[in-house]
Amino acid sequence: MSARGRWGLLSGLAVLGGLALVAGAAVAPAEAATTTGVATTTVNIRSGPGTGAKIVGGLVRGQRISVTGTASTGWVKVRFNRGTAYMYGAYLNRTGKNLPAGPTKITVTGTKITTENLNVRSGPGTTYAIVGSLAEGSGVTITGTFKSGFAQFRYGGSLRWVSLKYLARSTGSTRPPAATPTPSNRGERALAFARAQLGKPYKYGAEGPNAYDCSGLAQAAWASAGVSIPRVTTTQYKFGSKVAKADLRLGDLVFFYGPSPSHVGLYAGQGMIIHAPRPGKKVEYTKISYMPYAGARRPG
Q: Which ranges carry the NlpC/P60 domain (predicted)?
């Protein structure tokens, strides 16, 4: 079977669902998460491991947060507002079993903090189009409209939706979401360009601005960052610096299907790429694991 045929079979599996992606500039976690904790009741997030420590936020039953380690006397470390905070472990289910359902609404007052990298969607559900993303620790001011476990908020001048499961209450300063990121390096600028093309149709041989094929998108994205790369996937695979899979950075070119790759996308973080898949599809996010990985290159 040809490489294109193999991709046609696999592309039907590339459903993004509720996976979270990095928005704009990369945000490194304060610590590597070990488990996800799910609140079993309304519970505070504190600056230290004890009830005398300052309350910096809170969760309601069913909301999620990353637990990064143990503290003392029943307290655990959590990742919150791009730093380390503390919660009482007895109020977090970390087993992955018998988890409480996510909330259907939360209080409107105050700003909420995203506890994971989140997709921003055009409607209240994972079947709606992804129109952007929020980095973990972003501040979100919700409108008070809720549906199907999603909250409505204003994003880039439009009303959009985000999952309620990952919107913690915050009592301190927050970072507003960046609808128009200002990347700090060429790879991030290339990725920002690719992100702006989401939803545009695939067309073989197209180089934009209204349609793209996979290598045309990669070339246009890196051109927007001031780097000229070859036009064809197999030639792009020989350009720039070879990158190990474990060392991928935002914007790196990721290749698929054997030693002479026939498909390419731009690394978008969290094991995802943005790519132009095939005829009948549109520029989209998908998992690297959905296709046979061939290697990666960093053009600039």
A: 184-300
CATH 1.10.600.10 fits 3-16+181-298, yes or no: no
Summarize the chain as % helix, strand, coil (round to 5): 15, 35, 50
Mean pLDDT across the stretch 155-166? 88
26-180: CATH number: 2.30.30.40
51 CB contacts (<8 Å, ≥6 apart)?
none
Burial (CB < 10 A; 0-12, 13-18, 19+), residue 153, is buried
239 is catalytic: no
So what's the pLDDT on residue 211? 95
Catalytic, out of 142, 214, 220, 296: 214
Maximum Cα–Cα distance across the chain: 65
Question: Does the annotation count 214 as an active-site position?
Answer: yes
Is 202 in the active site? no
Strand, coil or helix: what is 146? strand
**Cα torsion for 169, 173, 176, 181, to the nearest 10°?**
-130
Domain residue ranges in the chain: 3-16+181-298, 26-180
Place of tokens 């601005």: 209
pLDDT digits (tens, 9 = 90+) for 25-44: 333 333 334 689 999 999 99
Specify which residues 57 forms β-bridges with: 45, 170
Residue written as tokens 């990952």? 166
Sheet holding 118-121, edge to edge: 130-134, 118-121, 158-163, 150-155, 142-147
Out of 121, 275, 297, 298, the active site residue is 275
